[in-house]
Amino acid sequence: MGIELLNITKKFAAYTALDNISLSVASGDLVALLGPSGCGKTTLLRIIAGLDLPDSGKIILENRDTTWLPPREKNVGFVFQHYALFRRMNVFENVAFGLKVLARDKRPAKSEIKDRVEHLLKLVQMDWAMKRYPSQLSGGQRQRVALARALAVNPRVLLLDEPFSALDAKVRQELRRWLRKLHDEIHVTSIFVTHDQEEALELADRIVVINKGRIEQQGTPQEVYDHPANAFVYNFLGNVNVFHGRIRNGWVILGEQHHVEAPDELKNLEEKDGKAFVRPYEIGISRIQSNGSDLLGTITDVRLLGGQIGLELECDGFNTPIEAEISRELFRNLELGRGEKVFVTLNKVKVFTGDYEI
Ligand code: ATP
Question: Which of 162, 174, 237, 299 is the most exposed, having the fewest neighbouring CB atoms within 10 Å of its CB?
Answer without folding.
Answer: 174
